[in-house]
Amino acid sequence: MVVMFSETPSATSSTAPRHALVTAAASRTVLLITAAAGCAVAFVVAYLLFVRTASGQQTENGVVHSAQSSRRSTVDWAAPLQHADLVVALGGVAVLVLAIALARRRFALGVTALVLLGTPMLAAQLLKIYVLDRPSMNDGLAVASHNSFPSGHVSAATAVVLALGVVLPARFRTWVLAGGSLGVAWVAAATVALGWHRLSDTVGGSLLVAAVVCAGAAVVSARRPDPGGVPLVPVLVALLAPSALVLGGYAVLATATSGAAQFVAAMVLAAACSAAVILLVAGPLRRVNFDPARAGSRLSR
């Protein structure tokens, strides 16, 4: 996809560099590709920083140790997740997605939403079980050493929100993603409170799903191009903000001075970062037409 730059009469003047990011524009497909790349890079950064370094593991294992040793797994607000059946819940969501699609007479759109629901969750499990590992750093903390990156629960919650954003009318998409981000935030914080997952697991789950969905949206957008341009500032934000989110979370968690402070910080950061990932991709996804039945329209309705 070609990046387009608009011409201005003062393009060769001394003020041109100052206005370069304002006058330059990229296609929506480029924005989506950049958002997918930004989330994918941040996913790798989170894994290398938190999982593959001794300092990262020590910081996060302290949180898990604090959660398990102090029996914070019985926190009342997190208890519903402890008793939820993830398979049944996902089955219910799949039925709901198809029901919405049939009610809108958009069966193909429902299939698209189901693909975007299932693909990132499958990718998360394959990466966690067969590809990624958590090397033992012998930090002296008696916590599980098996790989838990990325979180399956947070991946599923994020995928559910994005799938609903796809199958519902596009005019509601931003609101669905904004409201759904609160639910994902709760799931992320609850998995930390229960001692199931670390901060990096939760952020990694959201980033992986966002990367897959944005990549899929880029394919759709390339086949149904939007003649409008997107300023380069949002493109740069989509590329850099996810990694900045990961680095900022690491900096805050590493500076906590006590086990209790680390535990609280990890819960808050898990909620905030997971929700922020959804909000970051809400903009690039806002005007994508996922509906094959409306291929001639820029925006599904």
What does this structure look like?
The chain is mainly α and 301 residues long. 69% of the residues lie in helices and 2% in strands. The chain has 11 helices and 3 strands; from the N terminus they run βαβααααααααβαα. It has helices at residues 16-23, 28-51, 54-69, 79-83, 86-103, 107-131, 152-167, 173-193, 199-223, 232-254, 259-285; strands at residues 4-5, 24-26, 230-231. The protein has a 3-stranded antiparallel β-sheet. α2 packs antiparallel against α9, α2 (28-51) packs parallel to α10 and α5 runs parallel beside α7 (152-167). The protein is globular. It starts with a strand and ends in a 16-residue tail after the last helix. 46% of the residues are buried. Mean pLDDT is 84; it is low at 1-23.
Task: Describe this protein with a few key phrases.
single chain, 301 residues, mainly alpha, 3-stranded antiparallel beta sheet, 69% helix, disordered N terminus
Short description:
The chain is mostly helical and 301 residues long.
* Cα gyration radius (Å): 20 Å
Q: Bin the helical content.
A: 55-70%
Approximate strand percentage: under 5%
The largest β sheet comes out as: 3 strands, antiparallel
Average pLDDT taken over every residue? 84
Q: Which secondary-structure class do the elements indicate? A: mainly alpha
Low-confidence runs: 1-23
Spatial ordering of strands, largest sheet = 1-2-3
Number of strands: 3
Tally of contiguous helical segments: 11
Shape: globular
* Topology pattern, helix = H, strand = E: EHEHHHHHHHHEHH
What is the end-to-end distance?
25 Å
